[in-house]
Amino acid sequence: MTSPTEQAAHSGIAHRMAVWKEAFGKRWVGVTVLVFALVSNADTVLGWLGVQSRFGVVVLSAKLSPKTWIILGLTLTIGVLLESVYRVAVERDTARSQLKTERRNQDLSDKMSDHHEHAVHELLNKPPKTPADLDAWKVRVKDWEDSVYKVMRSHGCSKQEKRHVQTLGLINVMPLSSDPAIAHALSMLVTRMGRIADIAGKYGE
Questions:
Q1: What pLDDT score was predicted for residue 59?
Q2: Which of 26, 103, 126, 183 satisfies CB 3.0 to 4.6 Å to 177 for a cystine?
Q3: Structural domain boundaries, residue 56
């Protein structure tokens, strides 16, 4: 019975073999090797076709020594390996970039959701009762809005997204208070909260 360490070692070797097999199984690798093989045996191939003497073809490959062909073969192999490493590196960097973007987007979604929740509990559920309370309530709303905009800027939200939250335009005034000014202020808050929820949903999982 093999130990966990031995199993891990065998698994690592098997995985490496699978990766190498996939890398060298690419069509461009096969084409490159085939072209190299044809060029290295061009005199023989032309002889089979019967055109070597007819067209007076002087084949350079016939003048190259076996050592030279070995060097060329090694050079080709190194080139193939470097290309494979490059492709792996590109795929790795792409995956890292995608993961970084996903994490940033999720962080934006989480923070926007937190701001939405804060607005529900601390602003919407604690509205101003009288016109005298309205100014102090608006200060709390302004601080909340500034925090929202700071998050959007730090996470690279687009100009359109920031405008969507900042610029409300015409809104439907909801009957949230008997005082028109308070009802309008609460309606603006609700509208902005809905747009914040849009951003959170767009970037969240």
A1: 52
A2: 183
A3: 4-98
